[in-house]
Structure formats: structure tokens, C-alpha cells
Amino acid sequence: MDFRYTDDQLSIQAIARDFAQKRIAPVAAELDKSGEFPLDTIREMGQLGLMGIEVPHEYGGAGMDTIAYALAMIEIAAADCAHSTIMSVNNSLYCNGILKYGTEEQKQKYVRAIATGEAIGAYALTEPQSGSDASAMHTRATKNANGDWVINGKKSWITSGPVAKYIVLFAITTPGIGAKGVSAFIIDTTRPGFHAGKTEPKLGIRASATCEIEFTDYVCPKEDMLGPEGKGFAIAMGVLDAGRIGIASQAVGLSRAAYEASLAWARERKAFGSPIGSFQMIQAKIADMKCRLDAATLLVLRAAFAKTQADRDGGRFSTEASVAKLFASEAAMFITHQAVQIHGGMGYSKEMPLERYFRDAKITEIYEGTSEIQRLVIARNETGVR
After folding, report:
1. Which residue numbers delimit the Acyl-CoA dehydrogenase/oxidase C-terminal domain (predicted)?
2. Mind telling me the catalytic residues?
3. Mind giving me the DSSP string for 198-250?
4. What is the pLDDT of residue 102?
5. What is the C-alpha to C-alpha distance for residues 277 and 255, in angstroms, rounded to an integer?
6. Contacts of 378 (CB under 8 A, 6+ apart)
7. 183 forms bridges with which residues in the sheet?
């Protein structure tokens, strides 16, 4: 790994940091309270290139690499996890999947509007009865007389589902053969037969709209199948590898915000006549938080570097992505927990952002594959035993 950032990487990092602190941080608490989707700031992020960082210029993106994406994600997440969640899905799960597996026509039609922030993208894999066991999905797609696909079924926990214009969807096209019978599709939500359910009332990332979506005789044109028939599950898993780098970056940004707040509090807050940072128990917490934050940051950069190499030379980065996601998400839970403890009663109050950081951190251990699934992926990749 080369630890020197390029000028482009530093530029997008600076752009993201400036926007996050000036436009997102001042409204984050109110958006968390109201649960309102931040459409205006998301569109501004698109105009800055943040919604399609790895998308080539010819499709409306910034044309940068995964390291640039990770650096920008960290900055946005440090201001507000809800914004970074929307950004992650657009970049990692939606745009990345179509760029890697789509036709030229699909890239031109379905990537540009998302990368520029004109529209929102989503990714639909999970169903009410199938979360970690994604191959157990029930949503079906069958061919009609014209060769188009008629889709019926439900998906759940769809990030940006209430506002998405386009969705990458996974459905069974050949039942009875498990994962080999899954195919991927690009869904235009303005077509008849698509319905978005109520927005879920979540513990954290509340301004990131999440809902169940339903398909009733939805007709998807045959040219909107993504990749070959029967390869949908492989596409889903490959896209999730990239998504895990995004969530690991989110966890690092969140952890950094909680750590920096705790560091300032330890210097300023006094008890028994001294700054609490002079007490050994607080010092131990600060040291443990710092070690986990730095380790998570380096693991994220390693995973981003591995994906950049894979994009250029081929190969997989599954283990690096899972290691980064597992460690960074659990570090986020540890660091935000310690941050609340260091702040004492004020950490528990909504007058300060610590309790929001704590609530937001939990989801990083769940979506894009739970911590349990990450351990399974890592162990299988390492041992070769399945």
C-alpha cells in the first residue's frame, strides 16, 4: 500500500469535509428528530460529485477510485450517518453494480441521473423472510409472451426505497435451484405495479428513508435485466463486497466524530478540581478508542486499495472488505459507547450528538451483512471450507 494520497483523493476529501461541516452538521440533529429525507443536500452532494465518486466522467461521475470514495464517506459520516447511508447505497450498491455488470445502454440510461444527484438509487435484496439467507427469497420474475419479465413479490428494509427512482432488484427466475435461479433487474419505480410501503421508524440513521417495496405484475423490459439470467446472486454478493467498504468507511467517520468530541470533553470538563482527562480511567478509554479508530481507518484504506487493484487487474477483495466492515463497525459501537460514558449525563442527553452517534453506530453491525456473516465470510475465505 502507498500511504500517500493523490491530489484527486485529497481534493474530494476536502470537498466532502467542507460540505459536511457547513451544510450537513448544522441540520443533522433536526433531521434525526424529524426523520425528513434530506433531498436538497443530497442533490448538492451530487453536484459536487459525491454521489458517483467512482463513476467515470462519461456517465456523470467524478471518475475517481475507491480510496477517494472511502475518504469522502468518512467526512460525510462524521457529520451525519444518514447522509452517508444514502451516499453509500448510491455509490457502492447501485452505481457500482450497473457499472460492473450493465450494458452500455444501461450505464447511459440508469447511472447518470443517480451520479449527478438528479435522482436516487436503491438496492433490493432483503425480504421479510430472508435477510442473511438471501438465496431464500420469494420474489419471482417470469417471462411473458413478449419476452419481458413480470415481477411479483416483496422486499424489505430498502434504503432510499420511498424516494428512489431506480432500483437494482434481485428475483427468482428459475425456482427450485436456489442461488443459481436468481437474476438481477433494473427497476424504474415510475412504472405500474410498483408500490413503496410506509417509511420504517428506525433507531438510528433516521433521515435515511427505509421501507418495504412491493411488486404486483410489474413488467420489466427484457433489456433491463442486469447481467446474464441466473447470475443475480453472484452479482448481489459481488456488489455487497463494495458496499461493505462503504459501511466500514461510514463507521470510521462516525467513530472519529465521537472520539474527537470525547477528546475535547476530557480536556474541558473538570471534576474534583481537575480536567477529567487527567484521570487514569478516562485516559484508558481515550487510548482504547484511539487504537480502534486508527486500526479501523487502516483496514478501510487497505480494503479500498484492494478494490482499486481488483478494478484494474481483476481478482477479489472479499476478505479485505469483510475484515474492514467487521472491525470498523464493532469499533464504532465500542467508541460511541465509551463516548457516551465519558460525557456522563450529557452523553445521554439530546442536547449533544453523542446519543445520536451511539444509535447510528448499531446499524453498521447489521446492514451489508451482519457481523456474524462477516465472520463466516472471513473464515470460509481463509480455510477454504464451506
Report:
1. 230-381
2. 368
3. EEP--SS-TTS-EEEEEEEEEEE-GGGEESSTT-HHHHHHHHHHHHHHHHHHH
4. 97
5. 19
6. 319, 322, 323, 326
7. 171
Is the model's pTM score more than 0.85?
Answer: yes
* DSSP code at position 159: E
Whether 335 and 294 have beta carbons less than 8 Å apart is answered as no
Domains of the chain: 7-115 (1.10.540.10), 121-232 (2.40.110.10), 233-383 (1.20.140.10)
How many H-runs (helices) and E-runs (strands) does the chain carry?
13, 10
Per-residue pLDDT, 3: 75
> What is the separation of C-alpha 258 from the centre of its chain, rounded to a whole number of angstroms?
19
All three cell numbers of 139, joined, read: 420474489
- Find the helix packing angle between 232-268 and 81-88, rounded to 10°: 160
Split the chain (386 residues) into runs of 10 and give each run's mean pLDDT.
87 98 98 96 97 97 97 98 98 96 96 96 94 86 97 97 98 94 97 96 97 98 97 95 97 98 98 96 98 98 96 92 98 98 96 97 97 97 93
